[in-house]
Model the fold of this input.
Amino acid sequence: MDKSQMEQIGLRIKNARNQLGLTQEVASEKINLTYSAYTKIENGIVGVSLDSLLKIAEFYNLSLDFLVYGKDDNVKEQFKYRNINALINLMDKDGISNTINALKKIKKIIENSNSQKNC
Done:
């Protein structure tokens, strides 16, 4: 894996994390990677192992095709639902305050989706 590929994978991971409003620290904890390893992957400094890539894909509910190649069927349409699923995963693992924040984000995703349909 060359530097450019590592950076592209890292950028896709970062975008997924930012869509959920998570810090690198929280994301690394939820994915069960060290903070150091997670930040190096996200910043494209190191290649990602298959094991780590699978954990990341599962947490963010993204396909390996999307993470590695940037390709996925109906990515734009499915992305909002992936965000909702990832937020639900986060709610399952956290306390009430994070659950409330996740529900607010789900509401915002749905509202944005509905406003785009009305345009």
User: Anything to note?
Assistant: The chain has a mean pLDDT of 81. The helical segments are 3-20, 24-31, 35-42, 50-60, 64-69, 75-93, 96-117. Residues 96-117 form the longest helix (22 residues). The radius of gyration is 15 Å.
